[in-house]
Amino acid sequence: MTGPAHGFRELSPLQVERVAYRRSRSRRSTLVAFGSTVVFAAVGWFAVTSAPGWPRVRESFLDASTAREALPAVLDGLWLNLRVLVVCEVLILALGLGIAALRTLRGPVWFPVRALATAYVDLFRGLPLIICLYLVGFGLPGLRLSGVPNDPVILGAAALVLVYSAYVAEVFRAGIESVHPSQRAAARSLGLTHAQSMRIVVLPQAVRRVLPPLLNDFVALQKDCGLISVLGAVDAVRAAQIESARAYDFTPYVVAGLLFVLLAVPTARFADWATARTARRRGAGW
Amino acid sequence: MVTPAVLSVRNLVKRYGENTVLHGVDLDVAEHEVVALIGASGSGKSTLLRCVNLLEEVDDGQVILDGADVSDPRADADAARRRMGIVFQAFNLFPHLSVLDNVTLAPRVVHGVPRRDAEARGVELLERVGLADRARSYPDQLSGGQQQRVAIVRALAYEPRLLLLDEITSALDPELVGEVLALVRELAAHGMTILMATHEMGFAKRVADRVCFLDGGVLLESGPPSQVLGEPVNDRTRQFLRRIIDTGRL
Questions:
Q1: Subunit contact B78:A193, Cβ cutoff 8 A
Q2: In the prediction, which pLDDT does A5 show?
Q3: Which residues in chain B have Cβ-Cβ distances shorter than 8 Å to A201?
Q4: pLDDT at position B188, please?
Q5: How many structural domains compose chain B?
Q6: Is A74 exposed, middle or buried (0-12, 13-18, 19+ CB in 10 A)?
Q7: Is A79's pLDDT higher than 70?
Q8: A106, A194, A251, B149: which has the fewest C-beta neighbours closer than 10 Å?
Q9: What proportion of chain A, given as a percentage, has pLDDT over 70?
Q10: CA dihedral sign of residues A89, A94, A96, A97
Q11: Which of B46, B55, B101 has the highest number of chain A CBs within 10 A, making it the mutation to test binding with A?
Q12: Does pLDDT of A3 surpass 60?
């Protein structure tokens, strides 16, 4: 805290003593943290490696050569997951925002629209994603309607969009309702219509406030993209399954899992940063 | 002086559930007239202004703007609001927009003025209130008095027929009240038609053409400031003013 840069400012002996005390405390905390981490890691390592089944698990889950062989195929699959992720996220944001906006409409004329939006959210927030995937992925093409695609990737993405839009709509709605009514009153008093007030005044403030929870849902979507594999799409998870069947070894699953984690880390850090920024801005007056 | 009324309020009733806030208020505001609404907190001053601005649905009676009943559900409320400006106690600036965007929003979006023209006019208005150098700032970077002056400019930017001021100095530190009141006085001097709710009795006395005393949702007394504030006829007015004088605010 008081480096040589502040050396020109004369500190009282009292403060010098306090600074020295704080410094020794912080050195001690660092040592304790380091020590406890080492002990914890050692205990964990020992517990796993001394387990009776460890040699077999290491062979069938953590085999380096199998991992190397599986990596290209799993990466190929991950590329599909990434494309699905981007397309789904765009559609989810648009649909979620639309549903949230419909739910804020006032007046009896809009009752059917409001009710429909509410029913949608209730249905798809309650429906387990895996069941939605089966219904959309196997049920929809089963109807043999013309124009309904057969591609498991498209059907899987559609199921993800259906379920996640319901969650994201609720996040947006919370944001919209957190904007004080006086903002809407000010907008209407200027002669703006309801739609204009929403678009120009309410939504921009709402979206800024809900950015952190939106990013959280984005991280969840990242890994749930792997679930489209149940429909037969050859994504990272399915590629890992194929590789593991070929090698008679579970290592490819570990590879795919690690890749998903690596994918989530940057987003999580960005979410932290965005949350901190929002908190700062709110501290600054809004 | 017989000028047609810009605003006529006829038998206005407003209820919130069981609670009747306005009991049939009648009030006219002529062109270029400045009318001050005084009364204790909860007497219905703000509600009256919000009803006039159609931010609240009225339960009975009429709000007539330039001869047309705008409180009629068949009337275009958005079109009516475009001819009125309102300034709120808590400023209610848009925090995500710069000062200039706050000011030019209505002209651009509602009145279709091209951005360049709207901004030129906006800067001109901000200059008049001494805030042209803050055009690119955001509301939270301004003092309360500055924010309220921006809010007034925002309400003036589309040249409304009628300006409604809802206790615009009540949320300000005492040393910031002066700059806002000076601006209102200038507007009045330029012939702006103003209906204002205020606790600043001294200001009402100097600037208003007429003072109306509202008590429990009833307009008890109305007349020139010297009469209403100097020789009130009604007992309740006298009582109210005595309390104000006792606290040194008149």
A1: yes
A2: 52
A3: 94
A4: 92
A5: 1
A6: buried
A7: yes
A8: A106
A9: 94
A10: positive
A11: B55
A12: no
Q: How close is the nearest chain A Cα to the Cα of B204, in Å?
A: 24
- Measured CA to CA in angstroms, residue A23 lies from A3, A16, A28, A188 at distances of 12, 11, 9, 57
CA B87 – CA B212 distance, rounded (Å)? 19
Q: Do B96 and A186 touch (CB under 8 A)?
A: no
Confidence of residue B191 (pLDDT cuts 50, 70, 90): very high
Cβ contact (<8 Å) for A190 and B105?
Answer: yes
Domain hosting residue B192, numbered range: 5-21+32-95+160-213+224-235
Nearest CA in chain A to B101: A200
pLDDT at B202 over 90: no
Give contacts of B139 with chain A, Cβ < 8 Å: 285
Note the ipTM here.
0.88
The answer as to whether B117 is a domain residue is no
Q: How many CB atoms lie within 10 A of CB A174?
A: 14
Q: Do B86 and A189 touch (CB under 8 A)?
A: yes
Residue B59 lies in a domain: yes
CA-to-CA distance for A73 and A235, rounded, in angstroms? 9
The answer on pLDDT for A281 being more than 80 is no
Q: Which residues contact A136 (CB under 8 A, 6 or more apart)?
A: A155, A156, A158, A159, A162
* Chain A residues near any Cβ of chain B (below 8 Å): 182-183, 185-193, 196, 200-201, 204-205, 208, 284-286
What gap in Å lies between CA A84 and CA A158, rounded to an integer? 10
Kindly state whether residue B124 falls inside one of the protein's structural domains: no
pLDDT digits (tens, 9 = 90+) for A81-135: 999 999 999 999 999 999 998 988 877 888 999 999 999 999 999 999 999 999 9
- Residue B151 is assigned to a structural domain of this protein: no
Say whether A204 and B96 touch across the interface (CB within 8 A).
yes
Q: Give pLDDT tens digits for B113-160.
A: 999 999 999 999 999 889 999 999 999 999 999 999 999 999 999 999
Residue B180 to chain A, least CA–CA distance (Å): 19
Which domains, from first to last, does chain A contain?
65-278 (1.10.3720.10)
